[in-house]
């Protein structure tokens, strides 16, 4: 749990919050001008009736996690999707709402809580509220009533991303971004009406909202997504959030608070990276360099690194870097400036955005969530009645073998879905060949695969230093791997593969890739090759874990050093027609593959059964 605070100075958050002045001398200097403007705005609307929960139009391409824009599809002939195809696309064990479009996860009194952005009216972006679901195990979720809706002037145009901070006495602080009736992004405070309620069904908004407004130099629409707070050595809480300077410099602002109602903006920033544009959904947390345990968000001291992650609004990609945090100056420095936030490592190299971690005090682990959006058209989303979903929650640890990566791995609870398993040992896959794996149903799978190849010899041959043009782009040592959600004739398939190669500098490198270009015969679906470098150490074979859930494929290489989430929409490789294959498209080496494959059960996500006494 997070550190405690003095109830005499900070009244319980399930009671009305008092507007006490702070004795700190450096208070609101940087935000005073904007606060005055906001008070004037209040004066203009104070006598007006409360605005209704209005329907707003979807935002444009460059406006945060709402964007669903595939310009390359606009001139494509729409595919004639059937209801059976749409039904197959819906995932069976990933979390998504029952319908329509889909922030601050936490654990409380025996339940994991997931708060997520949700449109109760449509399967496209807009009318953003906070949906709410609970689970005992992070897998079997139960839908609850909406937690927060846009019903005040300071969030009437959307209740956006936020984060929870749990205090030592069990109180829950929820900070979230709201868009005002004047389209200004502000930060607001909410808290449970009854913190003793395990389901946290009812939430109150602080009557003094907003608690933070855009400071001078920050545009009104470039100020969003507060993080979980951490406690500094001086007993003051800190939090950070994303913004930008001069249109191109991504930054992470730092605020101090002692009571979560009054905030002081620091003069500098936690970190800034030129050329990365607007940062949103910033995440900041410690990792132990021994790599064996997760840490509470407020952990400091020797043997600890800090991870800074930002979702880049310009590219819709989540980047992270590992570095050192100075709690005295509130500055963070990357270990490797060439792998800084936004220019180096990605959290996930596929279709993935707006990720968020939380410290699970129940199991002493850090759990990562990410959002996978659709890559078809909004027209298709409206027809099927739902869109987007969450990844399988992942544990996060520092990779002490490389010292440069995080390790992401599906939470152990996903193994509770495993049904029958099939084992394949040392299957020979010759250059240019494809080997079918007869396992029956292949649309809900957990696959562990290890590949052995002949020793690699560095060469001066300069091969393409990336994933190339996909699995068809042959080289001496690869690509090799799996073909998932493929039909018998291989007219539709999604390769998940390794690509070892001789790089331009004469070294051997390995890329881990996912090729969606032949995943569907539909032309109005966005398909591309995803992937990135993955460290493979001298004593390691190539290994991957692949979770297949209908139209979702999550792939983890080398224990989770590199991860790829794919969204696919096959037209023929569905239901009983979906197959699984091994392939080796190398020109010069044989591959031996050993696999264990489980069929996975459905998670049966459903509404909470309030009529029952317990679940």
From TrEMBL:
Q: Which CDD domains match?
A: GH32_Fruct1-like (cd18624)
Report the pathway entry. Answer: Glycan biosynthesis; sucrose metabolism
Q: What is its EC number?
A: 3.2.1.26
Q: Which Pfam families match?
A: Glyco_hydro_32C, Glyco_hydro_32N, INV_N
InterPro entries from the entry?
Beta-fructofuranosidase_N, ConA-like_dom_sf, Fructan_Metab_Enzymes, Glyco_hydro_32, Glyco_hydro_32_C, Glyco_hydro_32_N, Glyco_hydro_beta-prop_sf
Q: Does the keyword Hydrolase apply?
A: yes
Q: Which residues form the Beta-fructofuranosidase N-terminal domain?
A: 54-85
Indicate the transmembrane segments per the record.
28-46
Residue ranges occupied by any Glycosyl hydrolase family 32 C-terminal domain in the UniProt entry: 413-599
Q: What is its main location?
A: other
The protein's name:
beta-fructofuranosidase
Source organism per entry reads Gossypium darwinii
